[in-house]
Structure formats: C-alpha cells, structure tokens
C-alpha cells in the first residue's frame, strides 16, 4: 500500500504532466486552425497572380512569391558547396583536433546568433561595404551565413554513417584521396544534404528580421536576370509589412495561411525523407 | 612531387578553406559589431549609455540611454522562462516516459511544427488574439505590452525546451530506472526522482537554449509589444534590445544609427554569454 502522501504526489505529477501536454497540443491545433480559417478565404487566384497596384487599390503577392523562390534558390546555391565542403574537411581531412574544435565552436556560435544581428551585419558588409545595396543577393548571402551550420551538421552526420571499410577498400585499390571522396564519400552524404536543404528552406521561408534591411521590402516584378540585384520582400517580410505598417490583415492572414501550409509540407517531407533514408540504411 | 600529389594537396587546401569559412564568418560578425558599435558608446559615454533611463533619439536634445531596453529584454526573457519552462518540462517528461507511441509521434510532429512556424505568424496571431484579449481582460487602454510579448515568447521557446529535454531524458540509462522500480518506487516517482536528476545538465541546456531564443527574437515581439521605449512594466508598451535595433534602423543616420549598432553589440555580448553557458551544460551532459 502506498501512503497517502505518495499517492497525492503521484496524482499531482500525473495531472500536471497531462495538463502541460494537452496545453501544448491545444496550442498547436489552435494556431493551425486559426491561421487557416482566417487566411484561406482570402486566398484567390488574383492575389497570387498579380502585383500590387496603387491605382486600383488592389494587392497581389506574386512579386513576394517570386522573391521568396529566388532567395531560396540563390541561398542554397551558395550554401551547399560551402557547407558540404566544410563537412568533408572536418570528417575526411582534418587531423588536427584543435582546428576541428575551433570550426565546430564557430558553427555552434553562428547557430546561436539572433537573426536581427545577421541582418545588421549583412547590411553593413554586403549592402554597404561590398556595394550590393539593398538587394535579393545581399539577403541571400546573409542567409548563407545563417544556414551554413545547418548544412554542415546534417552532412557531417550522414558522412559518419559511411562505413570506414568503403574508404579503406577504395584506398586499397589504389585510389587517391580526392577520388575516394568523389566516388565513395560524396554519394554517401546525399541524405544529409537533402535533409539539410529541407531544413534550410524552412528556415529561409520563416526568416524576416535578417532580410528586412538586406533584401528590403519592395513589391515589384523583375526578370530572372535582374531580380537578384533589386530589392524585394519575401512572403514573411511582406506579411510583416502588410500587418504592421499597412493594417491589411486579410492579405496578412492569406500569406500566413500559405506559410503555414508550406511549413506543414516541409515538416512532412523532412519526416518522410528521414524515414526513407533510415530504411535504406538498414538494407 | 608528382602531378597527382600536387592536385591532392591543392584539393586539401580548398577543403581547408571551405572549413574555415565558418570561422571567418564569426570573425566578420564580431569585428563588424565591435567596430561599428564602439564609436557611439565612446561619444555617449559607457555609463550614460548602459545606465541611462531615457531613450529619445529623435528629440532636439537626443538622449541615448538603453537601460529600458536591457531591462525589458531581461524581464521579457525571464517571464517567458517562468511560463514556458514548466509547461515544456512536464510535456517532455510525459512524452519521453509515459506517452503511448502514437501520441508521442503525433506530439513530436506538433512540436516540430511549432518550431517551424515563422515568427511573423506568431506576431500576427498575437496582434489579433492576444493584444485585444489582454486589453479586455485587464481593462487597459492598449493590450500591446510586455505581458503580450512574454506569452508569445513563452510559446516560441516551447519547442526548444521540449525537444532538448526529451533528448536528455531519453538518454538516461535504463538501469537507473529499473533499480529504482525494483526498490519499490512507482514509475512516476522514478521519473521525477531518478530520471530527471540524471538528465539535469541536458534540461539546464534546454533552459539556456530557451533564454537564447527569447532574448534574440525580434519580429514577433515587435508586433505585440507596442514599441515605446518605456522602463519595463507588465502592462505597458515596451521596447526590447532586438526591437530597438529593428524599429529605427530604416530611417536612422549619424549618431542615432551608431547608437543602434551599439545596442546590437550589447545584444551580441548577451548572446555570447548565453552560448558559453550553453556549451558548459552541453559538455557536462556529454561526460
């Protein structure tokens, strides 16, 4: 028999745990439902396919969608070689423990820095010092620094799962280090790179503070070639501007619903990809 | 040296440079913040800058005291921790030790979703639900306040706290729990008196990570806190270190802009301190 005191302790702990978990679950369900209910009715083809016009007093978010796509592509284009290269250096080349420690500490530091500071330094360095002005390119380069640790970490983790015997086998057949990396190591880190890309896309979609002063908040349409040197608002920045500066809550909620759907999609694909690669590794 | 060897060492060098890019970025950020942050502090005076209670950057006789921002950031973070940590901690214990696999996997995706939602979406929902709610509930003229910011931050740090605590709790060796159960402790007693103390470094790391998230958040807080540079008070409009930088940057110039860089430097120092603490706990957890 348990004493009364122990029984009430157990009961109290159990209820606190259940209440906390239920609260967390309710919060997520509420957020998703609220954003969808408020946002979906305001999503229309016209909103998605036009640019804002002050003459007609209409708002369209096509430029913001395109800016987001451009910034995602540009960021990944720069961050992938950097992040994968750094991961390969750390797992394949580095023998000096001190250098490894310094690089890993730097990566941890980068992932702890708040995005507003990235925005500020991006503005000083890319926009002013390198003369890119407020442009999608400056925004993308700022995001490259932010996402570097993510790509590095996921690639490093997948490289660790490449069996050492594969490398030894290739070396034994007379392959040089670079050849081993190209033919044995690189194919082995595909899953890490894909996971890293998904996580980075999610982070880029959600980023606003780092882009406000680097990529700006223009809503204009540009061609494929000129887009990178011009300023543009991504969806998150556009949401902020419409909600906070213009009081256009209907448009803001429509964008929020789109962002919420994209976040769901990204989380789902991250889970599926994770499961797929875990299964493949077991075989 | 043969041709192959030269190629190999060139490639080695390329990878070394790629590896050092991260270190370069950290240096770049630190140097830029220090160089651009020092001049204004010099001109205003360190004591007047840090301990000045009045911020009036656009007045005829501008005043640059950032104590209100520092205190708001500290109070806001502390408030978010007080609300968010207990909820996150108990959720983590439940999910890692008691929950059925189905509930656990549902909640894990829910928590990941919470982590992935953009901060401006939190800000938007906060603006339209929380701010009017607080205004009505407490009968004050404007709901955009430190209190609203605290609640938004508490929600935003939940995922980090739950995830990191869960990882730490799941890493507790099964033998510890089995021994406690064999001695007659009930499962719930075992979880709180054996598993939690065994995972305490990891849980501490979760809290510190939450502190870092909360103190660095800008956009969501900007949308719900009202943005007036008052000394912090729960139901008044306030400005954080992050929002102080963000709100005036677009139109500032001269000393005013330099003072914003100095604020960023102060924020950066806070973050570095938090990172060092985080590393301390993570190292302890690993040992």
Walk me through the structure.
The complex is a heterodimer of chains A (283) and B (287). With 283 residues, chain A is mainly α. Chain A has a single domain, classed as MetI-like (MetI-like fold, Orthogonal Bundle). Chain A contains twelve helices and no strands. Chain A has helices spanning 4-39, 45-49, 62-93, 97-112, 115-129, 136-160, 164-172, 177-188, 190-206, 209-212, 235-245, 249-282. The longest helix of chain A is centred in the first third of the chain and has 36 residues, at 4-39. The radius of gyration of chain A is 23 Å and the shape is globular. By secondary structure, chain B is mainly α. Chain B folds into two domains: 3-51; 68-286, MetI-like (MetI-like fold, Orthogonal Bundle), CATH 1.10.3720.10. Chain B contains twelve helices and two strands. Chain B has a two-stranded antiparallel ribbon with strand order 1-2. In chain B, a hairpin with a 6-residue loop joins strand 1 (55-56) and strand 2. The mean pLDDT of chain B is 91. Chains A and B meet through helix 1, helix 3, helix 4, helix 5 and helix 6 of A and helix 1, helix 3, helix 4, helix 5 and helix 6 of B.
Which characteristics define this entry?
heterodimer, A: 283 residues, mainly alpha, MetI-like fold, B: 287 residues, 1% strand
List the helices and strands and how they pair.
The complex is a heterodimer of chains A (283) and B (287).
Chain A: H1 4-39, H2 45-49, H3 62-93, H4 97-112, H5 115-129, H6 136-160, H7 164-172, H8 177-188, H9 190-206, H10 209-212, H11 235-245, H12 249-282
Helix pairs in contact in A: 1-12, 3-6, 3-9, 4-6, 5-6, 6-9, 7-8, 9-12, 11-12
Chain B: H1 3-44, H2 46-51, E1 55-56, E2 63-64, H3 67-98, H4 101-116, H5 119-138, H6 146-170, H7 174-182, H8 187-198, H9 200-216, H10 219-224, H11 241-249, H12 254-286
Antiparallel strand pairs in B: 1-2
Helix pairs in contact in B: 1-12, 3-6, 3-9, 4-6, 5-6, 6-9, 7-8, 9-12, 11-12
